[in-house]
Amino acid sequence: MPIHLPLFAWMPAAAVLSLLLSAGAPVHASQQLAEKGGCNVCHAPDKKLLGPSWRDIAVKYQGQANAVTLLSQRVRKGSQGVWGPVPMPPTDARKLNDADVKAVVAWLLKPSG
Ligand code: HEC
User: Fold this and answer.
1) How far apart are CA 40 and CA 55, in angstroms?
2) In a domain, 3, yes or no
């Protein structure tokens, strides 16, 4: 008599595996976008370069419902005077299109990002 394991007995393992796989992917993709857009030249995860760290930005805009929209516009058009006198240059749409800018901003706003 073969051991008959019902299908649902395997599901927790499959769920954990797919969680692990999906947790890594989006972060990786957005980091590549930040690289492609040249953001990493002036921004780092947790220290100030020419621009504020991703972490400082995430803390400042924590809980603001419109943060992704607002910051995406600032990344697109450039920004000055919010963090200090040093301006951020506009981001060329040929470098990062609107969806890419939004993806990077949504990623950097995550506290764990
Ligand atoms: C040449 C350097 C430079 C590059 C390249 C750059 N930034 Fe910035 N960034 C800055 C500086 C400087 C500030 C602070 C501007 C200010 O005080 O308003 C800033 C501010 C920001 C802010 C906060 C804006 C606000 O209103 O609080 C975000 C979000 C941001 N950058 C994202 C990005 C992303 C995404 C990219 C890549 C597409 C990028 N930056 C590329 C220098 C840069």
Assistant:
1) 13
2) no
pLDDT at residue 67 is higher than 80: yes
Q: How far is the CA of 22 from the centre of ligand 1 (A)?
A: 28
| Domain containing residue 45: CATH number | 1.10.760.10
Q: Would residue 11 count as lying in a domain?
A: no
In a domain, 40, yes or no: yes
Alpha-helix runs per DSSP H in the chain: 11-36, 54-60, 67-77, 98-108
**DSSP bridge pairs for 48:** 43
Cα(10)–Cα(16) distance, rounded to whole angstroms?
Answer: 11
Query: 24 CA to middle of ligand 1, Å?
Result: 25
- The model's pTM: 0.81
Pocket test for ligand 1, best of 54, 75, 98 (most atoms within 8 A of CB): 75
- Give the range of the structural domain holding residue 68, as residue numbers without chain letter: 26-108
